[in-house]
Structure formats: C-alpha cells, structure tokens
TrEMBL record, chains A, B:
PANTHER family: ATPASES OF THE PP SUPERFAMILY-RELATED, TRNA-5-METHYLURIDINE(54) 2-SULFURTRANSFERASE. It comes from Caldicellulosiruptor morganii. Gene3D superfamilies: HUPs (3.40.50.620). Residues 49-221 form the tRNA(Ile)-lysidine/2-thiocytidine synthase N-terminal domain. This is TIGR00269 family protein. The keyword Transferase applies. InterPro entries: Ncs6/Tuc1/Ctu1, Rossmann-like_a/b/a_fold, TilS/TtcA_N, tRNA_thiolation_TtcA_Ctu1, TtuA-like_LIM_N. Residues 2-27 form the 2-thiouridine synthetase TtuA-like N-terminal LIM domain.
Amino acid sequence: MKCVRCKKKAKILLKRHNAAFCNDCFLYYYANQVNRNIRRHKMFDRNDKILVVVSGGKDSMALWDVLAKEGYNVVAMYINLGIGEYSNRSQEVVERFAQQKGLELIVKDIKKEYGLDIYVLAKTLKRSTCSVCGSIKRYLFNKVAYDGGFSVVATGHNLDDEAATLLGNLLSWEEGYLARQSPVLEKTHPKLVKKVKPLYTLTERENLYYVLLNRIEFLHEECPHATGARSILYKEVLNRLEEESPGTKHRFISGFLEKGRKHFQDVAEKLELKECKTCGQVTTTEECSFCRFIKVCNQQER
Amino acid sequence: MKCVRCKKKAKILLKRHNAAFCNDCFLYYYANQVNRNIRRHKMFDRNDKILVVVSGGKDSMALWDVLAKEGYNVVAMYINLGIGEYSNRSQEVVERFAQQKGLELIVKDIKKEYGLDIYVLAKTLKRSTCSVCGSIKRYLFNKVAYDGGFSVVATGHNLDDEAATLLGNLLSWEEGYLARQSPVLEKTHPKLVKKVKPLYTLTERENLYYVLLNRIEFLHEECPHATGARSILYKEVLNRLEEESPGTKHRFISGFLEKGRKHFQDVAEKLELKECKTCGQVTTTEECSFCRFIKVCNQQER
C-alpha cells in the first residue's frame, strides 16, 4: 500500500477517500481538511480571536493543536464540570499541554466559581446529567467568549458526532434542530458569539491518528455518564453502514448541508431572544437556566 | 402476559405498542390498523375497484386476504418475471390461494406475453435486474389497472420496507424521492392510476403472524436477486435501533409523513408527462422504457 501523495509506504488507509497516506502526508491531508472547512464556511481567519473549547479528549486536543500550528490566534477554555476523578484527570491533561506548548488556557470550575453541582441539579430538576451539563457548557462557551472579546467559539465535533446527531434528529424529525444543525452558527444577537466546528469532516479515527502521531496526551476514557447514551447507538449503526459502503457518513452530512438543510429553514425558530434579568446573557425566558441553576444549588446547600 | 383487550392469555407481544394480544384480538388489531390506514389517507372505499398486486410473499398475501375479508372489491394481479423456479413456485402459491378462496386473479407472464427477459435486459442495458424488474412492474401495475377500469392499485409494502426506503433516501438526500415517498400516490394524469400501501404501519413480523394464524400459504424464500441488496442492510440497522428503542421505525415514518415530507414538496418533480408513442402509456420520454425493453429483447432473439 503506497501513499497516494508521495508514493512512499503508506501507514493509514482512508477507505472513504479511497486513499492511503504515509504519516507526513496524513498530517498534510489533515491540516488541509481543517483549513478547507474553515475557508469554505467562512468560519474565521487569522485576524479573529478564537476560543477553542477543550475537554482533554482526542478531538478537542487535535483541534487545539492544529489551529495553533496553522497560526490561528487561539485561546483554549476548559470547564471543570465536577465529574469526580474524570474531571480532575482531564483538567491535568489540558493544563500540561498548555504549559508544554506555551499556549494560553482559561480554566473554569463550575463548583468553585459558581457553586454548581450537576448531580444536585439533575436530581432536583429531574433532568439527565447530560442535559444539565449541556446547558452549563453552552452558557459558559458564550459568556467567556463574549466577555473576553472573542469573535468565535470553536468546538471539536467530528464527522461521527455530526452524523449521529443528524440521524437522531431525523429518526424523530426534530424540525427545529434540523434547521440549526450546521458547522457554523452565525451570530444572531449582539451578545451571542459565532460557533464553528472545523473538524466536522474528519472522523474519530482520523483525530485519534492525528493526536497519536503528534504524541499529544489525551484522556482515553469517555465521560462516565456517556455510557449507554443514544449517540453511541447511532454511531454504532452508522459504523455498520460505513463498513458496507465507505463514505456513507460523509455523504450523509454533506448531502444534508447541500440539499437537506435548506428545506428546514422555514422552521428555524423565530424565538424571541431576551437578556437574562440576573446576568444579562441571552436567553428565551426571563431568567436564563444558568442563573436558575445557581439558585437551585444555593438553596440545596442551606 | 395477558391480552390487553380481552385479558385472556396473550400469544404475541408488540413491544412498540407496549401491548400483547391473544390470537383473536391480534386479528382484530390487524384489521383495525389496515382500515384505519385506508380511512386516514382516503386510500379507497367499498365502491372502489382495487387491483392488489401479489408476489406470493407474506406481505402481499396478507394484504389480499385482509382486504377480501373486510369486504373490499379486490382483484389480484400476479406478474411472472421469469426468475426461474422462484417465479414458478410463487405463481403456484398465488393460484392455489385464488382457487381455494374463490378470488379473482389476473396472471401476467412477461416472457409469454411480451417476450421480455430480465437477464437479457440487465446485461444489454447494463442495469441491475432489480432496476429492470422495478420498471416492468411499475408499468404493468398501471397498465393493467388502467385498462381494467380499476380506480386504485394496492401493494403490500410494510413498515420495515418504508423505513428502509426512507433511511436510504436520507443517507444520500434524494430530494425527489423524499418528496414522493408516501402511503398514497394520487392520480396526477388521466392515464395514471392512484397507488396505495395499506400495510405501511404494520411490520414484517406482524404480517408473518397474520398469514401463519390464518394458515395462508406463502413463499418463504426471498427473490434470489434480493440477497445483498442495500435495503437488507438498512432493515438490519433499523432493527438494531428498534431493539434498543421499540417504536423507532414507526416514529421515523409517521414523523416523516407529519413533519418531514412537507419540506420537500417544492422539489416534487415538475416533470412533463407524455404519452408513449408506441403504447400510449404515461412516460417522461418519447417512448416508455417498457416498449424499449420489448425492442431490446426482440433484437437479441434474432
């Protein structure tokens, strides 16, 4: 098996592209895909101040590294969500990488800074921990970016994530979510920051190969709450389809972006955006869920 | 496990409905579903002359039987496609059932009546046998119904078939097919007959149970060309999703019909419908594919 680019011995086969690469050419391909996604969707350029959200997992570590190497102006943010040792280990991974590479990192600790506890919230509000975590993360992504003068928030969502989300949204025909699923969410309010997913065409496997090749430390374990999550089932069936017909996931996502998504634009929620009476951040209710979370945790402590 | 309707001992569990039935109540449920689908989508009523297309398999045999029992005015049509012993065995099954029940049956033999050979056509035209068969069947469904004064053609497509087709159309975002997938295709030309799928909410398993309970003979084997077909893979992954979350297939199809399908109506093909210069049937080209097939087979024979 020879590298399609330099004809030396290939090390990785990407069936969906019907291409094999040596390690050097894989890194070239990888950076090329990221840069192409950034340009194609006008995500940002070298003048933008970019907040990269990192969890310590392979995808976000790959994103942080590749954007820094490609000369983008990036600052990373890590949120400690208080998920026991998992959170502590992932914070260490992220902090070590920032120190080794001399990269800027913002650490947010929801317990220390805001008194939030996802387990108390999940129990009191009868919501899943994943749903509580999601609300907290979305709030902090935007608040930290807005307060810090960042023009864009970048996340490490990969092709497998996006295909699984799309499949889930289609199985139950979530029109609103279908209207909004995109590698770029534009700024729709002065206090909302643009969100982008530069790795949306790269698979989990490619991100893994990227961090291994670059000897980037990352947390191998999944969040303990992810086990049994619906998204894992969707990834499993998409892998089965991909196995029989390489390129299925990419065709599914790119077809959606080119031909499917536009049909749902008429339902793109016409929700009235307000500013939270407590913190001033954008919300659709009087008080945002983050401020309500803080009150719930304060009451439980008393 | 007790029957949800009569509280006697249940014989079949339908997880997706969270319901178990005894045999009698299952048959009641089954006929109920069929009648509800017919009414809900205004498929036909007892004044309509209905052409039921039968293959000898469990789904179409169940449809033929239930429509006859429910007092609809049905005539069945079987098409012998010349697929060796498979076609001969299926024709026998269908003929025996018609005779036993005293039901009217039209048999069409594409070799004897039109000189068509799907293998010659597939090879000469470089098309799959499934695609050739599909064209021939669609042509004859409409021609026999139109010439015979039928107001509607009914086929045995089940929930598994419809969900697999929908998944395939979504994976490659076939906008035109998405616009047209429906349990009812209305008459859009004076020479086109309405097409309906009264079993679209019933699973393969439920149709199988129906024919077994009623001791209806059917052909157990699949068409020999179906092996390895894409639709089998799609059914496999949908079964995996259904296993983890009963009701997934039904939610997928009903959500599409209620919330998804409407978004694609703007692409519902605005194809100009013409009448074939040779046979007069509706086509989008000068001469329909069926008439071109006949010429190909005639030339090959010389």
